[in-house]
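Figure S7 source data.
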Amino acid sequence: MSDHHHHRARKRFGQNFLHDAGVIHRILRAIHAREGERVLEIGPGQGALTEGLLDSGAQLDVIELDRDLIPILNAKFAAEPRFQLHQGDALKFDFASLDPAPHSLRVVGNLPYNISTPLIFHLLNNAALIRDMHFMLQKEVVERLAAGPGGKDWGRLSIMVQYHCRVEHLFNVGPGAFNPPPKIDSAIVRLVPHAVLPHPAKDHRLLENVVREAFNQRRKTLRNTLKALLSADEIEAAGVDGSLRPEQLDLAAFVRLADRLAEQPNAA
Ligand code: SAM
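C-alpha cells for the predicted S-adenosylmethionine complex:
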C-alpha cells in the first residue's frame, strides 16, 4: 500500500471519518440518489459516502479542503466520468458555477462541525438551485434546526433556516460510527427548500435584524429587546403581544414584525 492510503485525521479540518457500514448505508438510503441527478458532496474525506453516491448513477461533484486527501480521492474515483473533484473551501465555493437546473442540486455531507452553521447560511443564499440537503451535524444543532416555538432550542438558527426550508431530524448517530470518535452525538438532518415561501418577508434583511435583536437577550420581553427598532404600538400593530419573550413567537409573527419595520420611512 502506498503512503497516501494512510491519512491521519486532522482536527483543524474537523475530520471524523465514518467507518460504520450500517450507518453509511442508512445515510445513503435516506438520501436515495438516483441516476442522472446532480449531487454535491461537501467534505468527502476518504470517500465513505462518495462511493455509494457514485454507485447510484448520479453525477457527483465533491469539494474537499484538505490537499492531502485529493490524491486519495482521485485514486478511488477519478476514473469515473460522473465524478468531479474540486479542491477548496466550501464556504467560498460558487455553487452557481456548477450550473445546475433550478431546484435540482442535492447537497450532502458529513460536515466539519466548526463550519456547519456558516455553510448552511451560504447554501441558503443559493436556495433556488437546491432540491434538498442531507447533513450529518452535531445533534444539538439538528435539534435547534428542527425546533418549534416555545422551547430553548427555538432561536435565530431555527427561524432563519425554517424561513427557507422544511426541516426533518432523521436519526441520531453515536460517536462510535466515526474514526476518531467525536466527543459529541451527531444526527442526520434533511433540509428541503420551500418551492414557495410560506411566510415571505418584504425584506429578508429586516427579518434577520429583528430576529437577531430579539434573541440578543432572550429572557427579556419583545417590547424591551426591540425598543431600538419598533415602538410598543408598532409591535401591537403587527399583531404581536409585546410582553412575550422572543422564544414564544413563531416564524409568521417575526415576519409581521419585519414587515412593520419595512413600513418605516427610514428602514434600511
Ligand atoms: N465525508 C467523510 C466521511 O464521512 O468519512 C469525511 C467527513 S469529515 C467530518 C469532514 C470533511 O470535510 C473532512 O474531509 C475535511 O477535510 C473536510 N473539510 C473541512 N473543512 C472544509 C471546508 N471548509 N470545505 C470543504 N471541505 C472541508
